[in-house]
Amino acid sequence: MNFEKLRLQGMGSTINIPYINLKYTGWGELSDFIQKVRMKGEIDKSEISTTFLSYFAPQIKQFNEVASISGSFQGTVNDLRVKNFDLTAFESTKVLANASLTGLPDFNNTLLFCDIKELTTNVNDIEAIENIEDYLYIDKNIVRAGDCFALTV
């Protein structure tokens, strides 16, 4: 099944999908979409809200944020590969990466592997993440080094 020029709007999000291909061997596989239907597509210059994403990952509803995203993806929902993922969020955060996610939609048990090409953020963006210390260790010397830091690989 192929779709072109899709625009999904709702819950504070506008997602532009120039194309998406859904591949399955029979109609019965649609009832197990997460594991059986292979997707291949692209997201182009879209705005996605944490309200929308919290439907899939309730933990992120706390942010009340709209992020700009783009990139391509392929695989099943529970074994997804993302390329040239470009995310801009909060005041100054930008991430450019390739990623592999295994285990969705069970967010708490999903393995995420990232090949980060670029990461830029600032102290305010980091501190906006509630209970950040539960997810990420940040050396206090980095925070004292200034308001902004960047990593380009």
Give a structural overview:
The structure is a single chain. With 153 residues, this protein is mainly beta. It is built from 4 helices and 8 strands; from the N terminus they run E-E-H-E-H-E-E-E-E-H-H-E. The radius of gyration is 17 Å and the shape is globular. The mean pLDDT is 86.
Estimate what percentage of residues fall within beta strands.
over 45%
Order of strands in the sheet with most strands? 1-2-3-4-5-6-7-8
Helix proportion: 10-25%
Q: Please report the number of helical segments.
A: 4
Q: What structural class results from the helix and strand content?
A: mainly beta
Uncertain spans, ≥5 residues at pLDDT below 50?
Answer: none
What spatial form do the alpha-carbon principal axes imply?
globular
Evaluate the radius of gyration.
17 Å
**How many individual β-strands?**
8
* Euclidean distance between termini CA atoms: 37 Å
Listing every helix as H and every strand as E from the N terminus to the C terminus, the arrangement reads EEHEHEEEEHHE
Mean pLDDT: 86
User: Quick one: biggest sheet?
Assistant: 8 strands, antiparallel
Provide keyphrases for this structure.
153 residues; 8-stranded antiparallel sheet; 8 strands
Nutshell version of this structure?
With 153 residues, the protein is mainly beta.
Explain the layout of strands and helices:
Layout: E1 2-10, E2 13-23, H1 33-36, E3 38-49, H2 50-53, E4 66-76, E5 79-89, E6 93-102, E7 111-122, H3 123-127, H4 140-144, E8 148-152
Antiparallel strand pairs: 1-2, 2-3, 3-4, 4-5, 5-6, 6-7, 7-8
